[in-house]
User: Fold these one by one.
Assistant:
Number 1:
Amino acid sequence: MTNAFTREHARDLLEEWTASPSLVKHGLSVSFSTEAYGVREAARLGLTGPEAEAFVETYACAGLLHDFDYDRHPSLTEHPFVGVAYLREHGWPEPILHAILAHADYSGTPRESHLDKALFACDELSGFLTACALVKPSKSIHDVEVAGVRKKMKDKAFARAVLREDITAGAELLAIPVEEHIGNCLAAMQAHAEELGLAGTPST
């Protein structure tokens, strides 16, 4: 990636196109979770130094940009196609664009690369973990535990818009148990709790 295509640039685009604070936070949470898988994959591939940093940056950018056009273009005929067309016109790397398309089942884009699989796997789960945190009395992601998340997944009335099958399918794509996948994303989001607004509220 060239210096023009950084997570800072990606975040600027997300915030420029997105009026909804919760949708911006979703982009951030998916980015942090996806980036964590980029770090693991870079290590598995033996990447170090600037090469590893550039590799991981791709994962972070894909997370930030996967829904950046949703606020303006929420219909299935436009999202994520409008956003991807914009990014392609401005020279963003194809692996990021492919992953963004692949995160939407209806796009017909197959999930081929590790980035494709990681982005899809982290999307619904990141939203679900946010919901799990916000129902805690503390509203803190630090009080969310893997076992509790698994229990909430079985409660169809809780966060009903979140597709449980995408969470389990994502873990399968990454070839890890669902519990491990939840733990990985939870740790990534906990590490950025303040930025996500999920550090909790002071007790009164």
Note: The domain at 7-194 is CATH 1.10.3210 (Hypothetical protein af1432).
Number 2:
Amino acid sequence: MILGGVAVNAAIFIVNDLNNRKIGVYNRRVVKAVGGKAVPILLTILSTCFGLIPFIMEGQNEIFWFSLAIGTIGGLVFSVVGVFLALPVFLWRKNGVR
């Protein structure tokens, strides 16, 4: 649930910025929307990953928290790929005009 929420909110954040940009070629607006929202999205993901590092440091002593931290960090790293690579590909238009 955490990972889906972060990835979906990041995608909504980017698409909203894209919809607010009205001037220019569509594909350039996609690149600008993704680039413009990259810093806040990455800061959110990185702060969550760094916040979970103490649970990894405890190691095998706390099985639940260790597994939760590893799974969450792995999912967040994968969501970066989805948000910054897959989403722009799906938003990209062949002729780039609209």
Note: Residues 2-91 form one domain.
